[in-house]
Every structure is written in C-alpha cells, then in structure tokens.
Specification:
Distance between the termini of chain A: 69 Å
Protein name (chain B): N-terminal nucleophile aminohydrolase
Keywords (chain A): Proteasome
Shape of chain A: globular
Structural class of chain B: alpha+beta
Number of strands of chain B: 13
Structural class of chain A: alpha+beta
Strand order of the largest sheet of chain B: 10-1-2-11-13-12
Oligomer: heterodimer
Radius of gyration of chain A: 26 Å
Protein name (chain A): Proteasome endopeptidase complex, beta subunit
Order of helices and strands of chain B: EEEEEEHHEEEEHHEEE
Helix content of chain B: 25-40%
Helix content of chain A: 25-40%
Low-confidence stretches of chain B: none
Largest sheet of chain A: 8 strands, antiparallel
Shape of chain B: globular
Largest sheet of chain B: 6 strands, antiparallel
Strand content of chain B: 25-35%
Mean pLDDT of chain B: 95
Number of helices of chain A: 4
Largest interface: A-B, 22 and 24 residues
Radius of gyration of chain B: 19 Å
Distance between the termini of chain B: 46 Å
Low-confidence stretches of chain A: none
Number of helices of chain B: 4
Chain lengths: 266, 250
C-alpha cells in the first residue's frame, strides 16, 4: 500500500493544477543509495559457453569426458579449451555453461588449495570436500541473484572411495553412478545408464573409455554446439590423469543417400 | 516496445521444482514418515536416490519436498540449530519446539522463501505420535496425517479416506478407530507410494519409510518387515527405524 496520496495519480481535473506543480513532495526512498545502481547488473546470461560433460563410475574409479569447444552463441569461438580441471591430487571438476565463470571457479579453488596447503596440518581436500564447498558457493551466489552460470560435475577418488556428484547454478546437487550435463543429460545419459548401471564394479578402463567415446560421438552427431575434439579424465587410486585432446572418428557417407541431409542432385 | 529508460534484463529464476512426494501418519504411540527417493527436473530423472527424509533426533524425523537445493540447505540449518540446542541444554529439543523452530526459520525467509514443503513427524514429550505439517512460509499445524509434494493431490484424498474415514460410515453399533495400528499404517503408506508411482511421473525409484516408536513401546507390528533397519542404538528411549523398498523406475 502506498501511503502517499500524491503518488496515487494526478487530479483528474486539469483546472485544479494547470501548471503541473503537483505532486509537491517526493516519495521518500529508503533503499541503498548507489549512484550507479542502474549500472549494477546482477542477473547475467552465459556468453562463452561449454556444452556437455559426461562422467561414469567404473571398476578403478571415475572417468569423465568433455569436448574442447567454447561457443559464442552459435559461433564455435574457442576450439582448444580444457573443461576438465584437476583440483588437488584426488579431484577433477568438469564444467558446462559460462566459461568465464568457470575460470573464476578455477581461481577460487586455486586460492582455496593454497590456503589449505599453507595450513600444513596433514589434511587434504578430497572430492567430497570440494563438492560441498562448490555447492555452498553456487547456492550462495544463486541466493544473491548473481549466479555462477555453470553445471559442474565433480569426480574423485580418495581413501579407496569413488565419488561422483553434480552441482549447478541453482545450487541443486545430486549424485549417481552416471552423470551428464546439458544436452548430454538428454542424449548421453540414457546410453551411459544402460552401459554402466549395475556394472560399476566390473567395468574396465578400456570399456569405460569406449562407452564415453561412443557417447561423445553421438553428442557430436546431434549437439550443434559440440566438437569432435575432446578429453577424457580418469581419477583412480593412482591419482588424476587427464588425456591429451582426442579426435572423434565419424562417418558421414550415409548422408549422401538421405534426401534433405547431404548435397542434393535434383 | 521495450522501455529505453532501464537496461533490459532476462530474469534469473532462483527456483526449480524437483518432484517427489512425502507423507507422514501419526499413530497413538508411533509416527511414520516416508518419502520416495527420485529427484527430477522437468522430464529428466537427475538421480534415483536422493533422500528427502532425515532423522533429526531420536524422536524427530523431517521430510522436505519441493526445490531440492533449498530443502538440503534448510535441513542443514535445522540440524545445526538442534546441535546448538544440545550443546546449550544437554538434551534433544522436544518435538513441538522443533516444530516452532521450523516455523520461525521458514518465516524468517518470508520475502525470499525456501521453496519447500516440510512434514515433521515423531514422538511428543507426552509419548504420543505426532505429525506437524508446514507450508513454505511457516504456517503449521499438528495433524494425524499429511501428504505433500508432486503427488499430494493423489495421496491426500486417499489418506483422508483411510485415516480420517472421510465419506465412510461405520457399521451399525460400531465407531471408527481414532488411531490405526502400525501394520495397517505401513500398508497404507506402501500402497500410497505404489499408487502414486503408477499415476505420477515424478514419483518412483525408491521408498524410504521412517518409523519412530515411543519410549517403552514394543516392536509389535514391525517384526518381519522386509528391508527394515534400526537407526537408534539404545532400547530405553524412543527408537527410530527405516524401511527401504524399491518402487517402479519407469
């Protein structure tokens, strides 16, 4: 309810106030006084974006995959971006969404790691702690209406235990034996579930790589913001290992025979 | 036409809806609190196991449903307050006090609410089974039963009929029971969830049923329940059990 009658609107009769001296007083404003208030933009939108991240549990630990593309809308802008990032000796964090927000996340995790190492108390951050920390950061930022526009998958292996969990710009978290972000959650997740659920303790590294490669290939065929250049990370008892960029073999000859798909002769 | 006076911005929506359903039923000297374990967003299942029911103390269990991130944060903060209470008073907070605490915590966020429906179940200080239900901004009442979440509109009418005997007439010369025995309540809970799983796409995968028994109550009606596990370590206070069951995953 506005208790200032002068804010209720101008009198209907112009003769009453022909010179527009009404309203006389200003409505008091008690909010924060920021000269640049109009320039502060909290709610943003993702600009340079990465697409899906895939992750599975397998016999020896966790395996993750993400391509090397950072898109600028529909433009394939940066084609050599690493979206799988190691944190400490036990954890890999994979990101979809805004890449500058992801770089900021890498930065805060670097600062966190430094302060933890500086303590020299014999404690090390594992995937569980990194995930809890990131979920609190993401939830705090969404609560400020200034989100970090990412979907993150955090995978790791510490003290003989596998860990795989998700957190996104809303602070929503969950874990499962297969995870996928973005388009991957529609296209790759069903393939991953079929291949992995129930076989988490028997899948070999070789089988895991094959499943992820096949899923990345399906994504490359169907996700217009994906790239045929990708990396795979494994996190096992032996530590973190992130591969060099790999190339997806694809076949397009079938397109010739499909009308409306390849070049048309008539 | 878009106004030129202010920069135009796309509004960020800080909320989401993660499906699932919870319910609780109070008996004379027990309380049953249950929830499915599916977490979804839109048509996608995010995970088949994300608990929505949490043991707070030996006599209080809280079920949260709605926006999962808010739910997890809310449970975390309630547990934190209960721990502080334990440090200050060297005992667990009584159920009705937890209920009032939850209302205060929810109303504190009246203008940026936790998008969560809460159902608190457990044993009151007088030894009776109790259920408290809340709306997202803290309105609450003590009831005999309540369903909330995605399939609440399917389950609540069923409970009204089976627990409150709504639209039922007792046989001549008899009356409806005020409290139902534990085995009957467990059957109603399981039937509620299998039915909700059939008719609601956001319900399924797994079922977690927490049972809180009043001090000194025997196990009558719980023995031989498949998939049951005790969570409390002593038998001389209230006892908490959990029953885990599978639900259809399609």
């Amino acid at each position: 309810m506005d208790h200032f009658p002068t804010n209720w609107g101008r009198p209907r009769n112009d003769a009453f106030d022909a010179y527009a001296t009404h309203p006389i007083h200003q409505r008091p404003y008690n909010g924060p006084k920021d000269t640049f208030a109009d320039g502060v933009q909290h709610t943003q939108q993702p600009i340079v974006t990465g697409t899906s991240v895939l992750a599975i549990k397998y016999k020896d630990g966790i395996m993750m995959a993400a391509d090397n593309l950072a898109s600028y809308g529909s433009l394939a802008r940066f084609k050599d971006v690493q979206r799988l990032h190691p944190v400490g000796q036990y954890t890999v964090i994979g990101a979809g969404g805004d890449m500058s927000d992801f770089q900021y996340i890498q930065h805060i995790l670097e600062e966190l790691s430094i302060s933890e190492i500086s303590a020299q108390d014999g404690h090390e951050l594992g995937p569980v702690e990194i995930h809890e920390y990131m979920s609190q950061v993401m939830y705090a930022r969404r609560s400020k209406m200034d989100p970090l526009w990412n979907s993150l998958i955090i995978g790791g292996f510490k003290d003989g235990k596998r860990f795989l969990s998700y957190v996104d710009l809303l602070g929503t978290t969950y874990s499962a034996s297969t995870l996928a972000t973005g388009y991957g959650s529609y296209i790759a997740q069903p393939l991953l579930r079929k291949a992995v659920e129930g076989y988490e303790d028997t899948l070999t590294e070789e089988q895991g790589r094959k499943i992820l490669e096949d899923s990345m290939r399906v994504l490359f065929y169907r996700d217009a913001r994906s790239l045929n250049k990708y990396q795979i990370a494994t996190i096992t008892g032996a530590g973190v290992s992130i591969s060099d960029s790999l190339h997806l073999e694809t076949t397009w000859s079938f397109a010739e025979g499909i009308r409306g798909y390849g070049a048309q002769t008539q | 036409m878009a106004s030129l006076a202010h920069p135009q911005q796309r509004q960020f929506n800080p909320y989401s809806e993660n499906g699932g359903t919870i319910l609780a039923i109070a008996g004379a000297d027990f309380s049953v609190i249950a929830g499915d374990t599916r977490q979804s967003e839109g048509y996608s299942i995010q995970t088949r196991y994300a608990p929505k029911v949490f043991r707070l103390t030996d006599r209080a269990v809280l079920a949260v449903n709605g926006f999962a991130a808010d739910g997890n944060m809310f449970v975390k903060k309630v547990k934190q307050r209960l721990e502080w209470y334990r440090h200050a008073h060297a005992k667990d907070m009584p159920l009705r006090a937890i209920a009032r605490l939850i209302q205060t915590m929810l109303y504190a966020r009246r203008f940026f609410p936790y998008y969560v429906y809460n159902i608190l179940g457990g044993i009151e200080e007088d030894g009776t089974g109790a259920v408290y239900s809340f709306d997202p901004v803290g309105s609450y009442e003590r009831e005999a039963c309540r369903a909330a979440g995605a399939a609440s509109s399917l389950v609540q009418p069923f409970l009204d009929n089976q627990i409150y005997f709504k639209n039922q007439r007792p046989a001549p010369g008899t009356s409806h029971p005020v409290h139902l025995p534990l085995p009957t309540v467990l059957s109603i809970v399981i039937d509620s969830f299998t039915s909700a799983t059939e008719r609601h796409i956001e319900v399924g995968d797994g079922l977690e049923i927490y049972v809180v028994l009043a001090k000194g109550r025997n196990l009558q009606g719980l023995e031989g329940i498949r998939g049951m596990q005790e969570l409390t370590v002593t038998e001389d206070g209230e006892r908490v059990f959990v029953v885990r069951r599978e639900l259809k995953k399609d």
